[in-house]
Amino acid sequence: MRNQSIIKVGISIGDMNGIGPEIILKSLEDKRMLELFTPVIFANSKMMSFFSKHFKTKAQFNGISSADKAIDGKINVVNVWKEGVKINFGEEDKLIGEYAVKSLEAATQALIKNDIQTLVTAPINKNSIQSEQFNFPGHTDYLAQELKGESLMFMVSESIKVGLLTDHVPIKDISNHITTKSLQDKVNAIHNSLKMDFGVETPKIAVLGVNPHSGDNAVIGLEDEEIIKPALKKFVDAGKFVFGPYAADSFFGTKQHEKFDAILAAYHDQGLIPFKTLSFGEGVNYTAGLNRVRTSPDHGTAFDIAGKGKANANSFNEAIFTSIKIYKNRMEYINLKKNALEPQKTSHNNRK
């Protein structure tokens, strides 16, 4: 009988011409990892053997037809495809992109069916995955469509957590995506995730300004004055500890981020440049706000070092550990909430 305390962590292969297969193998090389969780890689067992031989690891694989057949204590590989695939490390290849999508789609369906409890995605190349059938900027947008909830790109580490108001949006279009509703949705997603996924009882959230110096009282742009400030006042009036807008240029340099449980940045580089500067190699990209747990490392395919055995698996390890921690925190939170409601139901029934 399967040990229910050992959760199954699904792993999508990512772009096989990049460092994805290498960091997966390096993460699973330590047999002690198999005592913490059951890995389920969505790819092809022959391909994984090829990668294992190339990178000189001793990993052995249990090929299976579906995730529900995974065996604890083994590195399971769901054979999403049967044919061999030619690998050219470091090259962008549309065909390899198609296999990355096949892996992601199969892993997502297993996640929906609860055949795996969490999903960790290896890096993809955003250009090679594009097709008429798959037209998403990245993992987050695809998962937002397939899973329930309001997605939030949430970069997390032990020392800093940064959410994004807008993520993969061109600079020229950012202001069009900043609305009262989008701000409220993202702040609520961060607030709920901090409580449910990270065990923060009373979250404190900082919001960065959209424009230089948070607009200088509408001298430099109107978004901070007309959208950000009124929305933040509503959160404060509702009793939530949400503060800002803070001028982004000095916020991290003066270590103001240390006073908060999380920061909401207005756009991609405003949040990710300081996050990666402060935690690169240890950070994790977490898609918060959804009804399932998905994480990934905080880096890309690294084509420049692919196939050379030089990739660092630290961030991928952290992505695995973080997904397990979040899943367990979430289950505990749900159970506590459920148990807190049960006496009320009993009391109500007794009055009938």
- The helix-and-strand class reads alpha/beta
Please trace the helix and strand order, writing H or E for each element.
Answer: EHHEHEEHEHEEHHEHEHEHEEH
Q: What is the number of strand segments?
A: 12
* Unreliable stretches covering 5 or more consecutive residues: none
**Spatial strand order of the main sheet:** 3-4-2-1-5-12-11-6-7-10-8-9
Write down the overall geometry: globular
Distance between the termini: 43 Å
How many alpha or pi helices? 11
The multimeric state of the shown protein is single chain
Evaluate the radius of gyration. 21 Å
Summarize the amount of helix as a percent range.
40-55%
Strand content: 15-25%
Biggest sheet details: 12 strands, mixed
Mean pLDDT value: 92
What does the model show?
The chain has 352 residues and is of the alpha/beta class. Helices cover 40% and strands 18% of the residues. It has helices at 20-28, 33-36, 45-54, 94-112, 139-146, 174-177, 180-198, 223-237, 248-251, 268-279, 314-350, and strands spanning 8-12, 38-43, 61-64, 75-79, 118-121, 149-156, 161-164, 204-208, 241-246, 262-265, 284-290, 293-297. A twelve-stranded mixed beta sheet has the order 3-4-2-1-5-12-11-6-7-10-8-9, with helices on both faces. A hairpin with a 4-residue loop joins strand 6 (149-156) and strand 7. Helix 7 packs across helix 11 (314-350). The model has no long low-confidence stretch (mean pLDDT 92).
